[in-house]
């Protein structure tokens, strides 16, 4: 019965993570690069949990000397999380050659398992007996733990730096986003500690005491479920981000501008002023439900107010405000060294293609 319950939990984790991963691949709102990184994180994490599910269910055990199904991409999880945080906080950031170092080990891990998968039976059996079982799996586990906590730390430092900058000069929605990311990383860190404790305990007891903890009833459940719990947490946060009001924290009603008094006492007259003082249109995650949540004004009331004052729908008004800011930045000497693509991402467009479409529509 316990085996069945654990298997069902792992199945739910895989299906939910896989589903949300595909949602983020096709998602139009939000920074496209951040969406892709979150999608990769969820999809690769789901494959890793699927691998644990197949082992737990005993499906891979009879064949482990013949082949390795290429589902295990643990070294990719840290970099995907790190770049999701980075692109979320800094939408205009572009990948550079120096970022290549983050992808060396993940690509090497993937190439290794795919190479084993397509090798012959004899080569697979030899790799398992002389390389994977006695040496590489332990080394891979150490790398996974080290790099996971390294990237969690790097992500957290980026968040804290962004918060410090926003406190000096920034907008409340930027701080709100950083708080949401901060709590995502914090709780993921706690779950990672639980999972790592299992890995370290198994390694130490087996290598120094010679005890196989897998013979203890329920011990394997701890590792599988603690790993799946990390995926459950990321899936839940991704669902909030995609279908909720993005990052609903107490920061929503905190004013970073002395002119933004209406944030505490909402009024129709303050809505357009808020777009000017707090630049909420620069947030690529902004949509009508989020604006309603922040302002405490009903969505229909916001739509009607915008239509009455500007003659446009909410998406059209949002696009117009972003284009106004984009053109102003092009004329600003402060942005002289930045590309039009970079400026477009900074003013709230999800991608350069979204910017080009908006520019085309503005000339029609």
Tell me what you see in this structure.
- By secondary structure, the chain is mainly alpha-helical.
- The chain is elongated.
- Helix 1 (2-26) runs antiparallel to helix 2 (32-56).
- It folds into 2 domains: 2-250, Rhopdopsin 7-helix transmembrane proteins, CATH 1.20.1070; 260-362, Homeodomain-like (Arc Repressor Mutant, subunit A, Orthogonal Bundle), CATH 1.10.10.60.
- The chain has helices at 2-26, 32-56, 77-89, 104-118, 121-168, 172-209, 219-243, 268-277, 288-295, 299-310, 314-330, 340-346, 352-362.
Offer a quick outline of the entry:
The chain is mainly alpha-helical and 364 residues long. It is built from 13 helices and no strands.
Do you know the CATH topology of the largest domain?
Rhopdopsin 7-helix transmembrane proteins
SS class: mainly alpha
The total count of strands amounts to 0
The figure for the number of domains is 2
Report helical residue fraction.
55-70%
- CATH architecture label name of the largest domain: Up-down Bundle
Strand content: under 5%
Q: Largest sheet at a glance? A: none
């Amino acid at each position: 019965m316990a085996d069945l319950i654990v298997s069902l939990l792992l199945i739910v984790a895989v299906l939910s993570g896989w589903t949300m991963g595909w949602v983020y691949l096709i998602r139009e709102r939000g920074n496209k690069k951040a969406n892709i990184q979150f999608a990769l994180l969820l999809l690769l994490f789901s494959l890793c949990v699927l691998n644990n599910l197949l082992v737990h269910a005993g499906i891979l055990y009879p064949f482990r000397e013949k082949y390795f199904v290429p589902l295990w991409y643990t070294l990719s999880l840290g970099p995907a999380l790190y770049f999701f945080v980075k692109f979320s906080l800094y939408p205009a950031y572009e990948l550079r050659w120096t970022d290549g170092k983050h992808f060396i080990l993940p690509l090497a891990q993937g190439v290794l398992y795919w190479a084993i998968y397509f090798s012959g039976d004899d080569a697979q059996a030899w790799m398992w007996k002389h390389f994977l079982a006695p040496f590489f799996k332990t080394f891979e586990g150490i790398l996974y733990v080290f790099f996971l906590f390294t990237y969690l730390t790097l992500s957290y430092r980026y968040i804290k730096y962004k918060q410090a900058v926003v406190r000096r000069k920034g907008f409340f929605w930027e701080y709100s986003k950083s708080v949401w990311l901060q709590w995502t990383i914090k709780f993921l860190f706690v779950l990672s500690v639980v999972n790592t404790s299992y890995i370290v305990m198994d390694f130490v007891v087996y290598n120094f005491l010679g005890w196989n903890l897998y013979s203890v009833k329920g011990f394997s459940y701890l590792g599988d479920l603690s790993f799946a719990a990390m995926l459950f947490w990321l899936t839940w946060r991704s669902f909030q981000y995609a279908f909720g009001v993005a990052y609903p924290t107490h920061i929503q009603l905190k004013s970073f501008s002395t002119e933004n008094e209406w944030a505490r006492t909402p009024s129709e007259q303050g809505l357009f002023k808020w777009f000017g003082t707090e630049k909420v249109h620069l947030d690529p995650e902004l949509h009508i439900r989020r604006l309603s949540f922040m302002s405490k004004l009903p969505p229909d009331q916001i739509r009607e107010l915008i239509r009455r004052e500007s003659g446009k729908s909410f998406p059209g008004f949002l696009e117009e405000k972003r284009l106004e800011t984009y053109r102003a930045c092009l004329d600003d000497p402060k942005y002289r060294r930045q590309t039009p693509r970079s400026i477009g991402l900074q003013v709230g467009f999800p991608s350069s293609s979204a910017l080009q479409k908006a520019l085309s529509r503005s000339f029609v």
